[in-house]
Amino acid sequence: MWPIPQPDLDARSVYATCVSKTRPAKVKARLELLEDAVAAAADEYEKAAATGSLHALKHLKDQPDGNDPAKGDNKKLTGCYTSRMARKGSAGREIYDQLIKSARRGRCPLCGHGFADTIDHQLPKIAYPLLAVTPANLVPACLPCNKAKGEAIPAVAEQQTLHPYFDDVSGQVWLAARLTPPPEPGVIFFVAPHPDWSATLTARVQRHFATYKLARLYAAQVGTELAALSDYLRGKPYRAAIDEIHDRAASYGNRNSWQAALYRALAANPWFIKSGCLNEWDD
C-alpha cells in the first residue's frame, strides 16, 4: 500500500460544486438543504479515518433517510457522485479527474501495482450517501482493487483496510517472501508484522493484504522477474551472483514492493541459486 496526500479539497465546497447545475430546481433545492449534513458527516469521517475508527460511524449509515426509502434523499445523494461528479461533462468532473491524478505515478495506492483509473469509496456510497462526494472518502484505485473490496463495511477496527490518505506503514518493512524448494520452486508473499505494531494495526495490514489479494498479485509477477534474473546471472561466478542479488535487494526505495521482498528472500537463501532452482525459471 502506498500512502498518498489527502486531497486539499473542502468537502462542503466539493458538494456545492456537484449540486450547482442540478435540474430540476426542486431537486437542487432539496440537495442544497442537505449541505450542512454532508459537511458535518465529512468532518466526522476525517476525524474517524485519522484514528482508524471508520467502524465507529455506524450512526451515519443509511442517512439521512434511515429506513424510509420514500424520502429519496439517499438516492439523490448517491446521484451526486454518479451523475454530478463521475460523469463526463458534469459539474464535479474536474474534481473527479483531480482525485484520479493524485495517484503516485498513476499507480493504485491500494496495491501499488495496477493503474489507478477508478475512484474507490472507502465507505461505500450505497451505505453512506452523505459521504458520496466527500474527498477524504474517495481514493484513486485500479478496477480490480475497487471490485475486490466491493461494498464491505468494517464492523470493528481490525476489519478496516488501510486508508492511503491516513495510514502510512511505509516506514517499516512488513512485506516478506518465502522461497519454496523443488519439485515446485516458487515464491510466497506474506505479511511479517513489525514488532512495534499494535495488534489492531497488524490485523488491519493483514486484512488489507487479503482483501486485495496481494499475495496472488505479487506472485504472478515473479516468473518474468526470475527468468530475467536467471538469464542475467548465467555464467557468472556464484559470489558475483550473490553480490548482485544483495545489491538489488538494497536498491528499491519502496522496501515493501514485491521486488524488494523477493530479492531479500533470495539474498537470505543462497541455496535457491546454488541448487540451480533459479535456472528452472528459464523459458
From TrEMBL:
Sample GO molecular function, one term: endonuclease activity
InterPro entries listed in its UniProt record: HNH_nuc (IPR003615)
Record has Heme as a keyword: no
Entry keyword set: Endonuclease, Hydrolase, Nuclease
Compositional bias of kind Basic and acidic residues: 59-76
Lineage of producing organism: Bacteria, Bacillati, Actinomycetota, Actinomycetes, Kitasatosporales
Tagged with keyword Magnesium: no
Protein known as: HNH endonuclease
Region (Disordered): 59-78
